[in-house]
């Protein structure tokens, strides 16, 4: 795939300036966009970048950054291929280093499942239900611990996830805690160009709030706790559309009457057009889940709104989203209760 800009910049490059542009572009692609094994060819200010994969990087932001280099007259980014001789024999050339093993790398190989109600991140949302208004909080994150090169021009990664998800009753004067879910997991991920996926083993336990138990004596508390192994696969159809899906099974569960099997799928859309000088992007996400512990009743999570991001690189994001949910409650011990809400949330992704 090729992205390109032409007829931009300050005219023809001066003698010797192509070498400067090639070196500057290589440094920028390595340190700001974390592109490994990228080949940069520059001839008379025209920049051609050949890179095995872009990962989660936005090609428009790469092109915009290349355009800002003094002397650049045009730029193209070619993915999934090596330098093919588009530039002439006298073109200046630079290469970013091959991916090598490294601890605590920046970013993640697999993008978050943004509409998954239990994907660890920082966020807060206000939900309006027929039974009353609720406040939902999320505190958590995913971290890459180790990354290395893998077969088929890919990379593999080992990381951890941890999060706490709470829901509070805003109808009560003391804003009572209804339920809190705690999760922690180990994730092994892989990415090659547009394809990515992970295998995860995670623990989740659920705890009802003291005030909720006191005010709802008819609710029977259970010691809900389980470990799950799941596999999720993802494919980027374009830079603005992504599909994902997968299955899982509970390997230990309490109570033992819980069904084991789980299934999940979704689609994510992010606008290729940026607003407000490249800092605002419309986004929309949909996630569908079903599992045997809820008798395969389907839950739908739909979110859409605006994403605020760095004008140059986009690995840190703040989202303001309208939210809709329908199906079995994602809140731990309330999994047998069907809920439906509309709301608004603020979500941070690092």
- Beta-strand level of the residues, as a percent range? over 45%
**Average pLDDT:** 88
What CATH calls the topology of the largest domain is Porin
Q: Into which percent range does the helicity of residues fall?
A: under 10%
Number of helices: 3
Unreliable stretches covering 5 or more consecutive residues: 7-13
Shape: elongated
Q: Provide the CATH top-level class of the largest domain.
A: Mainly Beta
The value of Rg in angstroms is: 23 Å
The total of beta strands comes to: 18
Q: What topology, given as strand order, has the largest sheet?
A: 7-8-9-10-11-12-13-14-15-16-17-18
- Order of H and E elements: EHEEHEEEEEEEEHEEEEEEE
* Secondary-structure class: mainly beta
Please identify which CATH superfamily of the largest domain we are dealing with. monomeric porin ompg
- Major sheet, described briefly? 12 strands, antiparallel, barrel
**CATH architecture classification of the largest domain:** Beta Barrel
Could you tell me how far the N terminus lies from the C terminus, measured between alpha carbons in angstroms?
A: 28 Å
Short description, anyone?
This protein is mostly beta strands and 350 residues long. Helix content is 9%, strand content 53%.
What is the topological layout?
Layout: E1 2-6, H1 17-31, E2 39-43, E3 46-51, H2 59-67, E4 74-79, E5 92-95, E6 102-103, E7 122-129, E8 132-150, E9 154-169, E10 176-192, E11 195-208, H3 210-215, E12 225-236, E13 241-254, E14 261-270, E15 280-291, E16 299-309, E17 317-328, E18 338-349
Parallel strand pairs: 3-4
Antiparallel strand pairs: 1-4, 2-3, 2-5, 6-8, 7-8, 7-18, 8-9, 9-10, 10-11, 11-12, 12-13, 13-14, 14-15, 15-16, 16-17, 17-18
């Amino acid at each position: 795939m090729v992205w390109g800009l032409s007829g931009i910049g300050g005219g023809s490059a001066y003698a010797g300036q192509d070498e400067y542009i090639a070196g500057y572009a290589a440094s920028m692609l390595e340190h700001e966009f974390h592109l490994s094994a990228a080949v940069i060819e520059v001839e008379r200010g025209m920049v051609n970048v050949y890179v095995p994969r872009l990962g989660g990087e936005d090609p428009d932001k790469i092109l915009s950054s290349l355009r800002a280099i003094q002397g650049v007259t045009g730029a193209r980014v070619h993915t999934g291929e090596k330098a093919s001789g588009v530039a002439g024999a006298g073109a200046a050339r630079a290469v970013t280093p091959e991916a090598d093993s490294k601890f605590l790398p920046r970013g993640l190989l697999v993008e978050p499942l943004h509409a998954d109600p239990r994907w660890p991140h920082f966020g807060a949302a206000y939900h309006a239900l027929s039974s009353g208004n609720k406040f939902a909080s999320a505190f958590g994150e995913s971290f890459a611990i180790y990354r290395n090169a893998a077969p088929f021009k890919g990379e593999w990664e080992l990381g951890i996830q941890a999060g706490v998800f709470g829901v509070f009753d805003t109808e009560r004067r003391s804003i009572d805690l209804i339920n809190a879910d705690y999760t922690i997991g180990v994730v092994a991920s892989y990415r090659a160009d547009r394809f990515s996926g992970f295998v995860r083993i995670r623990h989740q336990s659920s705890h009802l709030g003291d005030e909720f138990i006191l005010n709802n004596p008819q609710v029977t508390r259970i010691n809900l706790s389980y470990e799950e192994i799941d596999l999720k696969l993802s494919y980027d159809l374009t830079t603005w559309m992504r599909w994902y899906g997968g299955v899982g099974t509970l390997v230990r569960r309490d109570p033992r009457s819980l069904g084991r099997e789980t299934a999940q799928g979704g689609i994510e859309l992010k606008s290729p057009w940026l607003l407000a000088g490249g800092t605002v992007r419309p986004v929309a996400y949909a996630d569908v889940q079903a599992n045997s512990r809820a008798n395969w009743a389907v839950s739908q999570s739909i979110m859409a709104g605006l994403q605020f991001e760095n004008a140059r690189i986009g690995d840190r994001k703040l989202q303001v989203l309208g939210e809709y949910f329908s199906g079995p409650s994602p809140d731990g011990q309330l999994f047998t209760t069907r809920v439906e809400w509309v709301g608004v949330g603020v979500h941070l992704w690092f």
